[in-house]
Amino acid sequence: MEIIDQAVREGRKTLSEYESKQLLARYGIPVTRERLGVNEEELQEALEEIGFPLVLKACSPEISHKTEKGLVQIDIRNKTEALETFDRIRSAVEDTEVPVLVQEMIRGERELAMGMTRDPQFGPCVMFGLGGIFTEILKDTSFRVAPLERRDAMEMMEEIRAHRILGAVRGMEAADREVLADALIALGKIGLENDEVKEIDVNPIILAGRQPVAVDALVVL
After folding, report:
1. Which of 110, 114, 165, 189 is placed for a possible disulfide with 207 were both Cys, Cβ 3.0 to 4.6 Å?
2. What is the pTM of this model?
3. Cβ distance 211 to 6 under 8 Å?
4. Exposed, middle or buried, 139 (CB in 10 Å: 0-12/13-18/19+)?
5. pLDDT digit string (tens) for 149-174?
């Protein structure tokens, strides 16, 4: 796939967030609407296409811990705020070629995570669990070896301790498990069809009502 091939030719070990989500989208995984911008003209075009509220992020495979460095700003509600935030992020990044990701703001109270890791013995393995900032602390996850059948994906959702979060709770709609299952199957397929992909981290996936949307993603080569 060209996204991966380009990164390999450049000697990179990771895809940018934008590239990572492009890869996911090509396999049918729902991702945020977003555009890249390196100047105010491109920012204006993105604002007109995506609308408010939105999120602005520095977007480079070379930048880690963006939130801690102030390179992610959420819930931007108007053009003035967007322009000020855009300039602030651009000023904070040393490389003037680094674009800013203009991304729709997804609202939802439930956060999930999915991923793929290439095990040296079993090959591509798919993960499902709770998402957000406490993923590594809670470690509420389930795994399957790819390729996944739909039954496998459905069982993974039931195996986590917090599986009731996928149901109709506290006035929220039940998650669309069919879409979640499709995404898990697709992650396994990415691993099986692209030997260069070592790891995929999709966190968080926010439930916007019933619909899961991948808000952040990282592909390691």
Report:
1. 110
2. 0.94
3. no
4. exposed
5. 999 999 999 999 999 999 998 889 99
